[in-house]
Specification:
By secondary structure, the protein is an all-beta fold. It has 1 helix and 80 strands.
Length: 902
Amino acid sequence: MVLTIAYGPTVVNQTANDLVWDSTHQLIYLSVPSFAASNGNTVSALNPITGFVQSSEFAGSEPDVLAISDDNQFLYAALDGASSVQRFTLPGLLPDINYSLGAIPLYGPTFAVDLQVAPGLRHTTAVSRGAFNVSPYALGGMVIYDDATPRPTTATAPGNLYDSLHWGSDTALYANNSEIASFDFYVLTASSSGVVLSQDYTNEFSSFYVSIHYDRGTNLIYTDDGYVINPVNGQHVGAFQASGLMIPDSTLNSAFFLGQTAAQLGTSNFTIELFDLTTLAPVAEIVVRDIYGSPRRFIRWGANGLAFNDDAGYVYILNSPFVAASGARVVTPQRYLRPVENTRSAPRVIRSSKVAYASRSKRNFKTKVQLSSSVVPNPAPAVTGLSPNAVAVGVNGFTLTVTGSNFVSLSTVEWNGNQRPTEFLSSSQLQAQISASDVATAGSASVSVVTPSPGGGTSTPLPFSVVPGSNPVPSIVSLYPDFVAAGSSGFTLDVNGANFNASSVVEWNGSPRPSYLYGSGQLQVQIGASDVATAGYARITVSNPGPGGGISRVAEFQILYKPTVVNQVTNDLVWDPLNQVFYISVPSSASTHANQICILNPATAAIMNCQSGNEPDVCAISDDSQFLYVGMDGTGSVQRFKLPGLIPDISYSLGADNTGSPYYALDLQVAPGAPHTTAVSKGVLNLDPKAQGGITIFDDATPRSTSAPGWGSPGGNTYDSIQWGSDATALYAAGWEGGDHFFTLNVISSGVVLSEDYPGVFWNPGGIHYDRGNGLVYSDDGFHAVDPSTGLPVGIFEVGAGSPMAPDSKLNTVFLLARYVWQESSNYTIDLFDMTHFVLVAQIPFSTAQNGLNRLGRFIRWGTNGLALNDPAGNLYLISGSFVSAAHNSQSQTDVKPVHKP
């Protein structure tokens, strides 16, 4: 019996979210996320013949779903981070129009769940819109766009989830719901006014997170879990005995499925199965070995090519894998192939869960039609095939499918003459459970079927091969030590993990280092002083050579920056660019400088020239460095100081609520170009939410008559963080206590009034920052850059929840403070992002006091090359260096370090 033969694809080390084929220009286009090691936030053109990415074009923030017009003139890329779609002209990948996907009530900005170009109408697209941080997520309905103009009628009926869509004709659209158990198949009608739902057929398939595929040659719908549906009436017309990522292609009369067989689960091997598209019968199969991650997208290219990507950062190109002339041997499978397991999962969600959607549940799944022959009692059994017919030595137990004829319900499978637990599926199919001990030793086993009397008998056996194991893929579990201070001397690094051997190679930032093997679980390597001279991260990997083998996931080694530590409890700090000093507010609980406002000189780390206060808290400085304003929580007032002498000036009361509880300054900002004008968001201590008093504008000590009401007033909102816009007429606010809202307000001579309320913009609590260089608002929720004119994101920074940021458009850099899972509680990381392209360009780990940051206060820029942060329960940290002052542009980078999520 001939064993299944492995096919070796061309492997391209390029992270991608999606891929599409351009048949005119013979290229595969990739959407590359921001955290990719190269070409982040681009659409890239991959030559499948050479395996090289030959060009890339910045797309926007987080390009994801791709769609190409059938004349290969336009490529559309959904930008998840900007809630929009960017169009490119081909083949030059020249940016063309961009259109917004907008927001939906309650859930805020949307993203493209799926995107398809109309047949014969390259200027027309259909988009299924989704909401972030919700389950299910396809809540935004379906919209048709002509260029950048949405048609007015949208398919947005509550409960309909359009997770995957395809055009039929230019007036017909098909979609499916794969998130909830009603498993709907939808037929929609497109017209000049938009799109409406025509039919909803429930229980059309049986697996979550599957896509549908429409073939224009057969006019049928094919699903990833193997069903074939007539879209005219929603009826099943057949089923493949397979499931997984699939592609129908009537030009080849073929269907391809990608996934894992039962024997491959837990391994890095995958199977591609080829079926006849007319008869639905299996034709051939190949095994693709050593796949680094789980496959995500699967496409056809060229005359006979296939390609797919995985979630580990690779693209796999197969050139004519089922054509004997390619040099790859393929095996015609037996009459039955075990269904390929569907490896597709729910879309990657980088955001924390926020709202749960009340979903329907209809669990009367349709059973897939099984084609079986008549059962003949107790005939002599015959075995014609085994699936799988070989495994590597040492694999876990697996299910063996035995194909043949004349099986009955009492037939059993024997392994080397010993019965194994057997399940009768049909007269031509049995399944047996094979244990790990059965395949613990390389060699050949004999498989037969026995049917008891009367009649019956024992079949002619077939051989099953247990082949010698190949070199395993190594894995790293931990490093010891996992950090040293920058400038340390050389040391011995212990790399702890699994599947290490004498041929394993440890690499430090891609450079092989001599290592000593201390068993399969530990390697030791010598690291020199020059390797740790500069603060940053080193990337540690272990590789094993072939046969088999592979490269481990990256382990991060921290080379720590040591900041200047000022042992002073503070509530807040601001930077005076004119006088080159910090001003700090110190609570009464501090052991030094209690209840004072002080000057901190960063050059000497000395605190001097303090003034008394009463629970001084938030601070704000005028842009001409003339005045410092400080909220005095103890008296419910704001105190102004003249600079640089820190001389007390006017003071004004913030009033009280209708119960007599005094307001305090929850946030306080000085108007640009108007040093005598301040905006104060007023809060009440020990209430939830705190933002009870709204926003009031003060000219010196005089409040303007019109305030924006807070939570404690009718029609009020929670204004937790405020920022002035480009001048003294625009104000922005974030309200995380009442639903992650973003507000724009108009400031007029009589006061301040709400202009727009955008819900669901932010994903986590945090302050906001306005950058006057680019006019965008940045949020400490750890993600967003928002256009205040629309309330929609223009990009996100892939870091994580609640990461404080300090934007600086003069340096084209956003600085974010984070702590990753591999860092001890006292170590943190400053992530530096290209502000224009939303791509990580550098990371600087640093150490804090022994117990880390108890609670973060401010994280700000200072001077030409400085950053500062305060822990209100402990210390101030001053950081400076060339890594801060260097302008960062990802487009000049060739190796962008990936982000590893906490």
